[in-house]
Write a structure and sequence with these properties.
There is one protein chain. This protein has a single domain, classed as Luciferase-like domain (TIM Barrel), CATH 3.20.20. Strand 4, helix 3 and strand 5 form a beta-alpha-beta unit. An eight-stranded parallel barrel has the order 1-2-3-5-8-9-10-12, surrounded by eight helices. A two-stranded antiparallel sheet has the order 6-7. It is an alpha/beta fold. The relative contact order is 0.14. The radius of gyration is 20 Å and the shape is globular. Helix 1 packs across helix 2, helix 6 packs parallel to helix 7 and helix 10 crosses helix 11. It holds the Pfam family Bac_luciferase. GO terms for molecular function: monooxygenase activity; oxidoreductase activity, acting on paired donors, with incorporation or reduction of molecular oxygen. This is LLM class flavin-dependent oxidoreductase.
Length: about 350
Amino acid sequence: MELGVYSFGDVQRNPETGELGSTAEAQRNLLEAIQLADQVGLDYFGIGEHHTREMPASAATVILGAAAATTKNILLGSAVTVLSTDDPVRVFQQFATLDALSNGRAEITAGRGSSTESFPLFGHSLNDYDDLYAEKLDLLLRLNESEQVTWEGKFRPALNEALVVPRPENGKLPIWLATGGNPNSTVRAAIAGLPVSYAIIGGDAERFAPLANLYRQAVEQVKVPGADVRISVASPGFVGKDAQAAKDLWWNHYHEAFRALGEIRGFPAPQRAGFDRDANGKGALFVGSPEEIAERIVALHGAMGHDRHFFQMDLGQLAQKDFLSSIELLGTKVKPLVDAALAEKAEAPAETV
């Protein structure tokens, strides 16, 4: 299984004044985190799209481009590109350029966007929320198929045998469809022949197992030639040497992040009891020791059979040193444990009834 990290950028807090620090520093911190993730053997780093003072990672390909020149193996992707409010031609060109600079390590994860700040920012109406996404995903997939495209839609000027370059190193870019758990989006991924990425950020993580089954059933029914059939899971998470100390530390930052978001979007601040429920057992928050996190990843794999699991660790002004420490533990401790456990399960004889 592939393991990795995703981030929206996390602005540090000045320890003397308590004020939020530099959004520019947050971009440099992201680059440092990607470089460490590559060094400790993680498989994937994704940068999401946010336009807030606390989470200012709004230009993923710029940071990933810098990472392409200073890393060797790690896959570099978006998590997610808010495709509804972007231009598919520019998205494709930027990621194809990243793919060239990284020798074929670029990926796009395209979503509708649970954070809607980009709609007024780029002049789009939330009334067109799904129609925008459907049309732009169609164009993005057409661009991935051929360097010369003729296309017509409602929200963008038509293309008439337009040349779109550069082209990806390996012919096509891996394009994932992101969803927060929508059955229609699950089926849409299968019909398009795309891998699906589930964002599981609260509650019981295994409640997504029926969606994974729905995805595989739809794939089997539509039988798209050359379909890329994979499932990934994105979760909040944090790894510390001691399980309880990790939960106590990360709770403060988790609370701060969702308290601030709640003020903007109109939901209450989280309570510790709910956090403790979700940060243990089958909950969606993967916070704890390396051994605990490895055990919970393997358990969820038993329910969903997912191929990639990646974690948002830096939120609520988590100190950069703690973010880096968590990345190091994920790569050097959790990943070997997960690999060994899944290899052992694969080699075990099938149970007889």
